[in-house]
Amino acid sequence: MELIGFVHKYEWGKLGNDSAVAQLATLNDPQFKVDLKSTYAELWMGSHPNGPSRYKSDGSKLEEELPFLLKVLSINKALSIQVHPNKEEARRLHTSKPEIYKDPNHKPEMAIALTPFVGLCGFRPLPQIRDILLRIHPLNKLTVDDPKDLDLLAKDDEQGLRHCYEKLLNQSAIEIGLCIDSISKEYSKVLCDYNIIELYNKLKEDFPNDVGVLSIFFLNVIRLQPGQAMFLGANQIHAYLSGDVVECMACSDNVIRAGLTPKYKDINQLLSCLEYTGSPAQNKIFAPERIDDQRLLFKPPVEDFALTQLTLGRNDTEYVLKVEQSPGILLVISGQRTLESIGNNALKLKRGSIVYLPWKIGTEMRFISSGEDNTKFLTYISTPNSP
Ligand SMILES: [Zn+2]
Fold first, then answer.
1. In sequence order, what DSSP letters do the residues of 318-358 get, joined into one string?
2. N or C of the chain: less Cβ packing under 10 Å?
3. Average pLDDT over residues 82-98
4. In the chain, alpha helices (H)
C-alpha cells in the first residue's frame, strides 16, 4: 500500500533541493518536480483533510481516520513560538473561539532530527533567567517591574517568571525594536557567553521588532543531532528554528502563538495556560527506549502516537518486526530493503518510500537485503501508542 505524500510549500521552508522535503518528495513521487526557486517546508503522511496522502496505485485518497499525522519538516526560517492546549482547554477554546481554534483536540508533538536541528523548548532554569536580566539592562527595563521578582527567580519561584514574561509580552513593538537594537550594539558579550549570538542575529533579521527575538533569553535553546528527539506536551512553550526533522503529532491544528510570527497572538490565553517550570536544556531531549540493536521506540506519554526507528546495517540481511500497534505509516530515510509479509506482495523500499500499514497486530514484517543493497537502511514507523 504505497502512498504519495502531500507537500506544503510554506515560505519558511528550505529552498529547492536543499530541502529534505523536496528530496524525499522527488523520490516518493515520479510526477514531482522541484522548482529551484520554491521553498519546500512540509511533507505530510496521513489523512489530514488539508493534505491527505494518496495511494500510489490509483491516486485515490487515504481515507482511513488516523489519530496521528506524520511529517517531515525542512526549516530555514523560524516557525512561531507557540504552545498547544491540553484536551480540556482545546474543547473549551474550540467552543468559545471556533474561528481560531478549529478543532477540539490536543496537539502533542514529537520531533526527531534528520540533520542538526535548533529549537526552543521550555523555560531556562529561573536563576539563569535572573542572571541574564541582571546583565542586560534594556531587557531588565522591559521585564522587571519589581526587584522582588528577581528574588523570586533566584529562588526558582514561578511567580517571578510569570510576572517578567507577562510584562515582556505586553510591550509595544516600538519598545521591543529599540531593545533588540541596543542588545546587538552593547551586549554581544552576554550573547556569546550563552552561545546565542548567531541565533540572535538571524532571528533579528527575519523578525525585526518581534518579541520572539527577546524570548530566547527566557527559553532553552535545544540543539539536536540526527536521531535525537524532543517531545512537546500540552502547555510546553516551543519553536522550531532550523534543520530537518521527522515529526509526529496528534491530528489537530490548535496553536496558541507567542512570537516570531505576523499571525494573531493570543497573549492572554497563552499566559494563562503556559507551564512556567524552568529546567536545563539537556533535560528536554527525549530518551527513546532501546528494544534491540536495530530498533528504538520513541514512546511519549500520550495515546495518539509512538514512533519506531529501525536502523539496519550491512550484517542485518533479514530483520523481522512484529506489528504491535495498527494502523501504521512507514517512511524510508535511507538505504534499500525488500519488505515481505504473509499474504502481501513483496515491496521494494528505498529512500522516499511511504507505506500505509493497515495490518493486524501480530503480523510479521520482514525486511530483507538482497546483498547489493545492504548500505545503512533507516526507516521511521508511526503508529498509535500502546497503553
Ligand atoms: Zn508546536
1. EEEEE--SSSEEEEEEE-EEEEE-TTS--EEEETT-EEEE-
2. C
3. 92
4. 20-28, 87-96, 126-135, 137-143, 148-154, 158-169, 173-186, 188-193, 197-206, 211-215, 267-273
Residue 310 included in any domain = yes
Residue 17 carries which DSSP code? G
Ligand 1 mean position to 78 CA, how many Å? Answer: 12
3-state secondary structure of 80: coil
- Domain contains 320: yes
CA–centroid distance, residue 83 to ligand 1 (Å): 6
- Residue 374, pLDDT above cutoff 90: no
Last residue of a domain, one of 217, 243, 264: 217
**With 0-12 CB in 10 A as exposed, 13-18 as middle and 19+ as buried, what is 306?**
buried
Residue numbers annotated as active site = 257
pLDDT band at 111 (very low <50, low <70, confident <90, very high): very high
Domains: count for the chain:
2
Distance from the alpha carbon of residue 99 to the mean position of ligand 1, in angstroms: 19
Give distance in angstroms: CA of 338 to centre of ligand 1. Answer: 35
A 10 A CB-CB count for 289 gives 10
136: domain CATH number? 1.10.441.10
Q: What is the pLDDT of residue 7?
A: 98
Ligand 1 geometric centre to CA of 79 (Å) = 9
How far does the centroid of ligand 1 lie from the alpha carbon of residue 121, in Å? 10
Q: How do strand 54-55 and strand 81-83 relate by DSSP bridges?
A: unpaired
Domain enclosing residue 326, as ranges: 289-383
Q: Which CATH number characterizes residue 371's domain?
A: 2.60.120.10
State if pTM tops 0.85. yes
User: Would you say residue 36 lies in a domain?
Assistant: no
Single out the residue in 162, 189, 217 at which a domain terminates. 217
